[in-house]
UniProtKB/TrEMBL annotation:
This is tRNA-specific 2-thiouridylase MnmA. The gene is mnmA. NCBIfam families: PRK00143.1, trmU. The keyword tRNA processing applies. Belongs to the MnmA/TRMU family. It comes from Pseudoflavonifractor intestinihominis. It is an enzyme of class 2 (transferase). InterPro entries: MnmA-like, MnmA-like_C, MnmA-like_central, MnmA-like_central_sf, Rossmann-like_a/b/a_fold. It is found in: Cytoplasm. Keywords: ATP-binding, Cytoplasm, Disulfide bond, Nucleotide-binding, RNA-binding, Transferase, tRNA processing, tRNA-binding. The record marks 116, 324 as: Interaction with tRNA. It catalyses: S-sulfanyl-L-cysteinyl-[protein] + uridine(34) in tRNA + AH2 + ATP = 2-thiouridine(34) in tRNA + L-cysteinyl-[protein] + A + AMP + diphosphate + H(+). Its main location: cytoplasm. It holds the Pfam family tRNA_Me_trans_M. ATP binds at residues 10-17, 35, 115.
Amino acid sequence: MTTKPKVVLGLSGGVDSAVAAELLSRDYEVHGLYLDIGLGGTGKADAAAVADRLGIPFHTADIRDALERQVCGPFAADYLAGRTPLPCARCNPTVKFPALLALAEEIGADKVATGHYARTALAPDGRVLLRKGLRANDQSYMLSRLPQDILQKVIFPLGDYEKTQVRAMAGAAELPVANKPDSMEICFIPDGDYAAWLERRGAVPPPGDFVDRDGKVLGRHGGIHRYTLGQGRGLGVSGPHKYYVTEIDPACGKVVLSDGADLMAGRVYCADMNWLAVDGLPEPLEVTVRLRHSKTELAAVARADGESVVLEMQTPARAPTPGQLAVLYLGDVVAASGWITGADRTVPGP
């Protein structure tokens, strides 16, 4: 009898990881790992029920300390500094996948897996390429910070499927979470109210002024942590036109509002690059780029600027936001990613 190779799968208690477990169990000895962040809920019980249904070993790991250090603390610091953080993209390379790899090393597994909608491919030079999943569900943006040493060990069994197919497979396999709704919130803020979460932690910026570009006071805001560039809802400011957040000034505690015409940027700056399909930019490179977690992809020319990268946008991008990722693509392959640090935006004349 041939022994199946072992794989450690992140088993969250949701339908995606459950179907990933069912698919993997055909070729691997699957070990499910539930990452416990100490908030209770049904996740752990649901993950255990899936493991029991499939007859796979079930493990748990307490990741609260690592999550606080690597994700929650920086998340709070970003908002206090006027940036808009992206916690899932930080968690994947620093908390989630390291936890899976730690168990893999312990039990002698060569591979780890998750229920993300992405794909990998082996390049001729031996590196592993991160590729998009199918368009409807692609999650390559959030995985683009994974370094090559992690990608070498990762399997994404759902990469060739759409969510509707995964739901159908869950039902056909009679998995106990087949009809469980998807969670769309940040895992450590399950109610979605990040401003209240920040306020419960203690130090938050005080209320301040909404101002226009000329410095005229338009109203009062509840603290800069409640706003992000391009935001047009929940401002509570009326005037001759709809207002949008166009600048956040943490030093003065001001939030600048405009009609939104000055949100378009022709040049975007990013730093702390994670090079995946290319090794730097010895020459300018034509790419497409996502500047937020959406399907919007714009053409750009990427140029090296010391250790950073400048993206010359072929069409202006709306509200590139410090704290978010710029993910560079060559076709369906992630070339690199970097954290947005700023942009050159069009400021309308008089």
